[in-house]
Amino acid sequence: DGQGGWIPVSAFNIIIDQSTSSEDIGILSSIKLFPNPTSDMLTVFVDKAVTETMYITILDVTGKLVYQSEFRQKLELDLSDNVNGVYIVRVQMGDKVVLQKLIKNK
């Protein structure tokens, strides 16, 4: 903000790539979380063809594990019992990882 403060970021994607495969990067960058923000149901969807198993981990802001599972193309989660707040969604395919911010509110 020019005053030494911080500027809030509403969304971000981080892709950590340890290979040169643009196909794998394309798959990871095509992961969609919706709706985001969510109040109860969350859909995780990959809009490209997936041949490998993907692993999803959801962490709260303290790093506590909230959810962990395997999936291929689409996953639907019921987050209605989770407290409101910001969560980090980590999706891994092989040695590639993408992180996305998830907001849960009622």
Helix share of residues? under 10%
Low-confidence stretches: none
Q: State Rg.
A: 15 Å
Alpha-carbon distance between the termini?
30 Å
Q: Which structural class do the helices and strands define?
A: mainly beta
Task: Please give the number of β-strands.
Answer: 8
Put simply, the count of helices is 1
Beta-strand percentage? over 45%
Strand-and-helix sequence, N→C?
Answer: EHEEEEEEE
Provide mean pLDDT, rounded: 83
Principal-axis shape equals globular
Query: What is the makeup of the main sheet?
Result: 5 strands, antiparallel
> Largest sheet, order of strands side by side?
1-8-7-4-5
Features:
single chain; 106 residues; mainly beta; five-stranded antiparallel sheet; three-stranded antiparallel sheet; 1 helix; 8 strands
Summarize the structure.
The chain is mainly β and 106 residues long. The chain is built from 1 helix and 8 strands.
